[in-house]
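Design request, tokens follow.
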């Protein structure tokens, strides 16, 4: 039962109040047709809105089914309107962009009814009002009577207890009015219908009760409830509430709520009614997205290109760690920045800049350290295998190359029939030595014997190789990951133009340059150019004549048919039973032919060439082989007898038979003496006899000093000058006057020193000659016995003296001899090259090395010099910084677009004010209304973002064409990453949603009564 108790309603008007209702007391039956009559402004509609929950009373109480509404909140009133009230308005108040069926379904949507049930009940309601065949029409295609019947169907579809009809026939003709009133009369049979009207005839004809109002008060009630009826109504309400209570126990009452899908659908249909404005708004909103997307596309293209260049550059300049490391960073800084000497002086005179001194001083004082690459190799391999390692090496390392001190001896048969050592560097040295008189082999020997100079040379070559080209012919390809023979970096940088890639240790490929050319030295070393032709070229250079360059060309098939053979280093040395030493077979033609015939054959199985997009070349040589060949050669060499014998004799050179000199240059007297005594014990009898002969021919130290002093005591300066004059005339060919002048200028000390040296040489020669006369009469057995007896009597000083004077040492070391023979420990590389895909990854590798060193003793720590790091840096940071600045500028247009969308949404709120009132009338909450407009801004934001991304993707096509034309870099392409596109769409949605918050809140705050009055 519906009951109004002393209901008052006041409206503010200027400085006062308007009393619209002045204490209304009313009771209604649960099923009656009540008409409220009265002049305009008497409070009829105000009371109807209060009963319908659209407006709130100022004083009094509205009791619904025995429950007071004084403490009702907004959500309670929303639920009341949706479940208890059905509105029929004079102006129909249908949503124009919804079909008839959708208009009726809307109330059920708020009630949470399923889609199928919702449709069934809506169709049933429309059939009751005679519109079962008009389901999909839009309101603007219908007559006034039809629209009012749709409004009635919407009012009854949710089976409300009360139907509120505000002038339902006010805009209809007489015939249609009668049809509408018949429908309302039928509805009133099982529910309460309250109608406000100005037509007393219709009220008298159809109503069961007429209430008249004037100036906010009730003045007449044709059929008020009696006490008995009130009691019966209360019992009816009590019985229904008990019935409903059982249902509530089983199912919690759900508040009416509009789903996001419904909000989305309403907004989408509204936007479709304004297609032109929607498209223009979305396009305006997409302008900022287009700007950011294009900047991101170009930035992404640049970064992708830079990453590719970095990867290829870092493939040419990996982080290299040598077994013997020389820190030349100071020297490199001198090259780049000049002398570090203090220049604090005036500028009026000329001063010296000692840069050469600084360079030589830095070179001389460069610190050489030994790296334990065996342990570090184990660490790297362990970390690479662990994908979850904290060091990050598994992801940072794109490849690792292990190098060894392996001199790969490759021979081939030249076109002139001779066996040729296929080493372009050695062949070039031979040509320069022969035709230019420069002994390059001597320079190389000096370089290799001086670690600092060697390091300096390699550092210089690092910077010059790109300009002069490498003389290296045979080059090992980078090994791939997970057991692959060849790295993906090689595949990415080179195209296979003929044949196939190597699949076995004895397969190699020919490496051409981008013009399908090989250098003349490479062709010569590969046996394709005769020695005579190279000699003619060198002669042309020397005499300045025009060289006759070859125009020959070779097919891929011809080159792949050629044969190359690898000779193991250990096989080059054969044991000579006569000497007991190992002789180099390469010194004779027969020996070389034997080695060539029994060498490991190699097959050229393919031809590769740098691809057009490659920015660096990882292969330095003209013939590339795999690490499998290196491992095979090391394994086979390890089985050689020569290596076994040398390892069993670590103190003796098996090639020369001479002992190895101690690696220490500052042996003490005791150390020399001990070495000498041990050396004697290891000699054969023949070697002992030869050693004792040398000892006997060497004057003892004390005896030598005594004889020199006796001679020096018996001469004066004049005698010394005379003796020196005779020697200098004979040896130097100078005139006697010049020699006399030279001797007169010499000091006494210089004369004495020079003369003393002459005397020592004469005494040594004479002593040796006298000793040899005696030795000739002795048998070898006597010499051996004499040595053993004498050795026991030698003092420590005498043994050390003979160590310096008599012993002849090998000009190499034990380690170098093993290397010459080809012995290598595969677990102990001489060099490790760590390849990274970017400079960021390179920093991860450097951090991993620091972590490795943290737990190691100083002598076990890994040291290296990052030459590339000193000269190069990543430009990605710069590109990103520029991109961020540009994006910041373009973002201004995004903000402007968002503000514009907010304004347009506000306009949409004004345009849809009546729709807001309709939704509130059927039970939609403020939040539902807000969500509806938020959905509209989300749709616009999504369309704007999607439009911006699509337009940007299309614009990338002409942009790329322009970039390719201006830069000639075909692999530099602007492209928008998918994740960036998704993020931009989300940003567009977020910004438009934020821009629509204020309009959506203003829509939610609208008074439903005022909203329904708007047009």
């Amino acid at each position: 039962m519906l009951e109004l108790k002393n209901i008052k309603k006041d409206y503010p008007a200027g400085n006062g109040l308007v009393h619209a209702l002045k204490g209304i007391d009313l009771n209604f039956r649960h099923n009656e047709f009540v008409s409220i009559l009265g002049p305009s402004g008497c409070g009829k509609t105000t009371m109807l809105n209060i009963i319908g929950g659209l407006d709130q009373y100022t004083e009094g109480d509205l009791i619904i089914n025995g429950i007071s509404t004084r403490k009702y909140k907004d959500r309670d009133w929303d639920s009341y309107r949706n479940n208890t009230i059905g509105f029929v308005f004079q102006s129909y108040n249908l949503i124009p962009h919804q079909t008839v069926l959708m208009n009726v379904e809307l109330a059920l949507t708020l009630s949470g009814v399923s889609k199928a049930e919702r449709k069934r009940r809506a169709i049933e309601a429309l059939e009751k009002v005679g519109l079962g065949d008009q389901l999909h029409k839009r309101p603007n295609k219908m007559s006034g009577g039809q629209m009012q019947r749709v409004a009635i169907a919407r009012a009854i579809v949710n089976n409300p207890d009360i139907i509120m009809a505000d002038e339902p026939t006010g805009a209809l003709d007489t015939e249609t009015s009668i049809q509408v009133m018949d429908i309302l009369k039928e509805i009133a049979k099982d529910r309460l219908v309250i109608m406000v009207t100005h037509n007393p005839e219709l009220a008298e004809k159809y109503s069961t009760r007429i209430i008249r109002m004037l100036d906010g008060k009730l003045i007449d009630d044709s059929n008020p409830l009696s006490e008995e009826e009130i009691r019966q109504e209360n019992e009816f309400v009590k019985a229904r509430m008990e019935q409903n209570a059982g249902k509530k126990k089983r199912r919690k009452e759900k508040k009416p709520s509009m789903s996001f899908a419904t909000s989305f659908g309403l907004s989408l249909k509204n936007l479709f009614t304004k297609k032109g404005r929607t498209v223009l708004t979305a396009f305006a909103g997409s302008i900022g997205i287009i700007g950011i997307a294009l900047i991101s596309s170009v930035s992404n293209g640049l970064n992708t290109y830079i990453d590719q260049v970095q990867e290829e550059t870092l493939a040419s300049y990996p982080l290299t760690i040598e077994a013997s490391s020389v820190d030349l960073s100071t020297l490199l800084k001198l090259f780049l920045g000049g002398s570090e000497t203090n220049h604090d002086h005036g500028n009026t005179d000329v001063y010296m800049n000692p840069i050469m001194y600084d360079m030589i001083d830095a070179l001389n004082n460069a610190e050489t350290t030994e790296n334990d690459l065996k342990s570090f190799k184990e660490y790297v391999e362990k970390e690479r295998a662990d994908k979850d390692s904290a060091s990050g090496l598994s992801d940072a390392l794109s490849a690792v190359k292990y190098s060894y001190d392996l001199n790969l001896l490759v021979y081939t048969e030249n076109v002139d029939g001779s066996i040729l050592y296929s080493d372009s560097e050695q062949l070039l040295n031979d040509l320069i030595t022969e035709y230019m008189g420069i002994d390059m082999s001597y320079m190389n020997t000096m370089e290799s014997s001086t670690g600092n100079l060697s390091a300096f040379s390699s550092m210089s070559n690092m910077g010059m190789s790109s300009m002069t080209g490498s003389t290296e012919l045979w080059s090992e390809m980078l090994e791939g990951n997970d057991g692959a023979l060849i790295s993906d970096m090689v595949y990415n940088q080179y195209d296979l133009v003929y044949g196939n890639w190597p699949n076995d240790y004895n397969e190699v490929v020919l490496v051409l340059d981008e013009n399908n050319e090989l250098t003349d030295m490479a062709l010569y070393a590969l046996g394709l150019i005769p020695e005579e032709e190279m000699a003619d070229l060198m002669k042309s250079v020397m005499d300045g004549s025009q060289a006759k360059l070859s125009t020959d060309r070779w097919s891929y098939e011809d080159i792949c048919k050629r044969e190359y053979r690898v000779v193991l280093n250990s096989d080059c040395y054969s044991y000579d039973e006569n000497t007991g030493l190992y002789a180099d077979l390469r010194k004779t033609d027969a020996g070389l032919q034997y080695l060539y015939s029994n060498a490991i054959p190699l097959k050229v199985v393919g031809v590769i060439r740098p691809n057009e997009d490659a920015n660096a070349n990882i292969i330095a040589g003209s013939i590339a082989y795999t690490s499998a060949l290196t491992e095979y050669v090391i394994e086979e060499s390890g089985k050689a007898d020569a290596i076994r014998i040398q390892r069993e004799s670590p103190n003796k050179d098996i090639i020369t038979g001479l002992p190895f000199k101690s690696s220490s240059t500052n042996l003490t007297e005791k150390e020399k003496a001990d070495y000498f005594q041990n050396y004697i014990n290891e000699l054969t009898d023949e070697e002992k006899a030869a050693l004792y002969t040398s000892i006997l021919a060497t004057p003892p130290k004390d005896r030598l000093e005594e004889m020199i002093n006796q001679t020096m005591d018996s001469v004066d300066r004049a005698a010394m000058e005379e003796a020196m004059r005779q020697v200098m005339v004979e040896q130097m060919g100078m005139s006697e006057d010049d020699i006399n002048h030279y001797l007169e200028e010499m000091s006494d000390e210089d004369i004495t020193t020079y003369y003393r040296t002459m005397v020592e040489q004469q005494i040594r020669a004479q002593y040796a000659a006298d000793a040899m006369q005696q030795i000739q009469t002795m048998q070898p057995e006597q010499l051996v016995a004499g040595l053993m007896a004498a050795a026991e009597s030698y003092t420590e000083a005498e043994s050390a003296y003979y160590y310096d004077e008599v012993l002849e040492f090998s000009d190499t070391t034990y380690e170098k001899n093993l290397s010459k023979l080809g012995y290598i420990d595969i677990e102990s590389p001489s060099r490790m090259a760590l390849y990274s895909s970017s400079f960021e990854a390179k920093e991860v590798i450097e951090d991993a090395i620091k972590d490795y060193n943290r737990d190691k003793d100083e002598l076990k720590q890994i040291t290296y010099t990052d030459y590339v790091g000193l000269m190069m840096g990543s430009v990605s940071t710069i590109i990103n910084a520029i991109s961020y600045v540009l994006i910041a500028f373009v973002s201004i247009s995004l903000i402007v677009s968002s503000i514009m969308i907010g304004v347009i949404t506000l306009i949409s709120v004004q345009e849809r004010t009546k729709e807001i009132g309709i939704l509130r009338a059927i039970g939609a909450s403020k939040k539902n209304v807000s969500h509806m407009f938020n959905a509209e801004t989300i749709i616009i934001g999504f369309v704007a973002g999607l439009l911006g991304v699509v337009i940007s993707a299309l614009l990338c096509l002409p942009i790329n064409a322009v970039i390719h034309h201006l830069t000639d870099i075909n692999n530099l392409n602007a492209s928008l990453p998918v994740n960036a596109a998704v993020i931009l769409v989300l940003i567009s949605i977020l910004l438009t949603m934020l821009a629509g918050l204020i309009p959506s809140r203003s829509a939610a705050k609208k008074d439903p009564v005022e909203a329904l009055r708007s047009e």
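Comment from the thread starter after seeing the answer: thanks! The first strand starts at residue 2 and ends at 13.
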